[in-house]
Design brief:
Helix content is about 50%, strand content about 20%. It has about 400 residues and is an alpha/beta fold. The protein folds into three domains: about 120 residues, Response regulator (Rossmann fold, 3-Layer(aba) Sandwich); about 130 residues, 3-Layer(aba) Sandwich (Rossmann fold), CATH 3.40.50; about 150 residues, Alpha-Beta Plaits (2-Layer Sandwich). The chain has a six-stranded mixed β-sheet, sandwiched between helices. Strands 2-1-3-4-5 form a five-stranded parallel β-sheet, with helices on both faces. It has a five-stranded parallel β-sheet with strand order 7-6-8-9-10, with helices on both faces. The longest helix is centred in the middle third of the chain and has 26 residues. Its cofactor is Mg(2+).
């Protein structure tokens, strides 16, 4: 990622240089006037340009038009801005403008660039039966580098969400034929939690209760039409920042800090909820409990850093093989589980024995060289009783595998 900063103040340039290097660690080119900026724009492709509005050789904001003629997103820095200038800048389609007031203004610029980089991978679905309204919202979102998908009613929006699970944000109008905004949100929230999908409601209706009703139905925020550009951008970015924070907290609570696979807490929370349904439907649940053989010896011989490398690669191999269809968790230390929902013990045994053989045949590469690692595994299928009982039975099978010489898979 390469950034262009066009600024005639050396103090401001130094502040931006320091903050960008500290927070972004990317290549930055500086220009003190429009002529220098024009030359740099011809030589390089920039992710974004941060430009002062008044330059020695371009005092009326001409640099903005120059930057945009090179299809480069533009963030404007300015010491002052009247309402007429503001309208003109927004009509030009800049990313945002920031008043040069204090250090926090420059920190905001850096946060905005970081957000723009993340936005490139964020899909937004806009649901509105008005073509004009959809295109207006789409244009605002594309200025912020989002990937935008459109739907002309609630039903088609719901179908898109079901077929494209990687959509991060839904922006929906209230008045739509077939399925209105409220109905859409209710259906969506049956499938997608707040950690998975953020929702912003829109409406031109004068009903004052709409905002509360949208949020009570499951929306994260609401905007009354018509809205100004800045309010729309701030609401969208604040909603996504909140979603990022919620996801981060969820990951801290449910993922193992070292390996990134699910932790013990998530495993029990997930399957204690599902156990009653498994009983009622008489479906299968088989749990494999794995223990890396002689792992203490790895730590004692090579150190805990190498031990961590082994754990990370071991869990990565488990996840690659089973993570897409089953649940891989780290129970603690060198102990892991794979929960095979829908499989009986024999099928789980076949899969785990294949994994055991592959692990033994492919040494793990560490900073101290390749290490041949083996694993012992105990398998138990759910019959009746509790999840604790199922784990205890798998643990007994694991004990058998160790007693019989390790590097084995045993069924309880």
């Amino acid at each position: 990622m390469r950034i262009l900063v066009v600024e005639d103040s050396r103090v401001v340039s130094r502040i931006l240089q320091h903050l960008i290097a500290q927070e972004l660690g990317c290549e930055v080119d500086f220009a003190e006037d429009m002529l220098s900026a024009e030359q740099l724009l011809k030589e390089h492709k920039y992710f974004v340009a941060i430009t002062d509005l008044n330059l020695p050789d371009a005092q009326n904001g001409e640099v903005v038009t120059l930057v945009q003629s090179h299809q480069t997103p533009c963030i404007v820095l300015t010491g002052s801005l009247d309402s007429q200038q503001r309208k003109r800048l927004l009509q030009l389609g800049i990313v945002d403008y920031i008043l040069k007031e204090n250090r926090f203004s420059y920190e905001y610029v850096v946060r905005l660039v970081k957000r723009l980089k993340r936005n490139e991978n964020v899909k937004v679905l806009v649901a509105d039966d008005s073509l004009v309204s959809r295109k207006f919202v789409r244009n605002l979102l594309e200025q912020q580098l989002f990937q935008v998908i459109e739907a002309d009613d609630g039903l088609s929006a719901f179908e898109i969400l079901q077929s494209q699970s990687d959509i991060t944000l839904l922006i929906t109008d209230y008045n739509m034929p077939g399925l209105d905004g409220f109905g859409l949100i209710l259906k969506v929230r049956e499938i997608f939690s707040r950690e998975e999908l953020a929702i912003i409601g829109l409406s031109s209706d004068a009903d004052e209760s709409l905002s509360a009703r949208f949020i009570k139905n499951g929306a994260n925020d609401f905007l009354q039409k018509p809205f100004v550009h800045e309010e729309f951008h701030c609401r969208v970015l604040n909603t996504l920042d909140s979603l990022d924070m919620i996801r981060k907290l969820w990951e801290q609570a449910n993922l193992d800090y070292l390996t990134g696979v699910y932790n013990r807490r998530y495993f029990f929370g997930l399957f204690e909820e599902q156990l009653e349904q498994i009983k009622l439907k008489k479906s299968s649940l088989t749990v494999a409990l794995l223990d890396i053989d002689f792992f203490k010896k790895v730590n004692d011989t090579y150190g805990h850093d190498v031990g961590d490398e082994v754990l990370v690669e071991f869990s990565s191999r488990l996840n690659r093989l089973f993570g897409q269809h089953f649940t891989v968790s780290r129970f603690g230390g060198e102990e892991f589980t794979v929960a095979f929902k829908g499989l009986n013990e024999d099928k789980a045994f076949s899969l785990m024995d294949t994994f055991r053989a592959q692990l033994e045949a492919e040494p793990i590469l560490t900073s101290q060289g390749p290490l041949t690692i083996t694993v012992s595994t105990g398998i138990a299928g759910f019959t009746d009783g509790s999840l604790d009982n199922l784990i205890n039975r798998a643990d007994k099978a694991l004990y058998d595998a160790k007693e019989l010489g390790r590097n084995l898979v045993c069924i309880e």
